[in-house]
Design a protein that fits this description.
single chain, 142 residues, alpha+beta, Arc Repressor Mutant, subunit A, Dna Ligase, domain 1, three-stranded mixed β-sheet, two-stranded antiparallel ribbon, 5 helices, 39% helix, globular, binds zinc ion
Length: 142
């Protein structure tokens, strides 16, 4: 992502927090920025490394809480199979996201809207769902 689109994404995240009455703290913002800056999925461990040392130095629970917060707003998705995180700039509600993860270059592409909500157990309220597809992206395929 270019630094321009990162600052746009951060501004959009600020607006979203304002709308939801949530607080975008400096740590939360910094964590989001680091996830957006990365071209491949980021592990919490890497985030901790990037956040220290310095005055903004963060302890593990702080980083995990920041990630939970960002996930709850749909700004970040967790790839369970990799235990890693990707930024999302699609400003969709937490709902469903489908991630296509290239096992060659690590690039992640996201689509949504194709998930069928009709087949869930009666009365089940979905809070977040991420479908992970692993394969080879168009670039690596050629
Ligand atoms: Zn998304
Ligand atoms: Zn690839």
């Amino acid at each position: 992502m270019t630094s321009d689109s990162i600052s746009q994404a951060l501004a959009a995240a600020d607006r979203l927090c304002l709308e939801r009455g949530e607080r975008m703290t400096p740590v939360r913002r910094h964590v989001l920025e680091l996830v957006l800056q990365s071209n491949s999925p980021v592990k919490a461990y890497d985030l901790l490394e990037s956040l220290k040392p310095g005055p903004g130095s963060a302890k593990p629970p702080t980083v995990y809480r920041a990630l939970d917060f960002l996930m709850s707003l749909g700004l970040v998705h967790k790839i369970e199979a990799l235990n890693a995180f990707v930024g999302c700039t699609h400003s969709h509600a937490c709902g469903g996201a489908e991630l296509y993860i290239c096992t060659d270059c690590g690039h992640v592409q996201e689509v949504h809207g194709s998930l069928e909500p009709g087949h869930k157990p009666k009365g089940f309220k979905v809070e977040r769902s991420v479908v992970e597809h692993f394969g080879v992206c168009g670039n690596c395929h050629q």
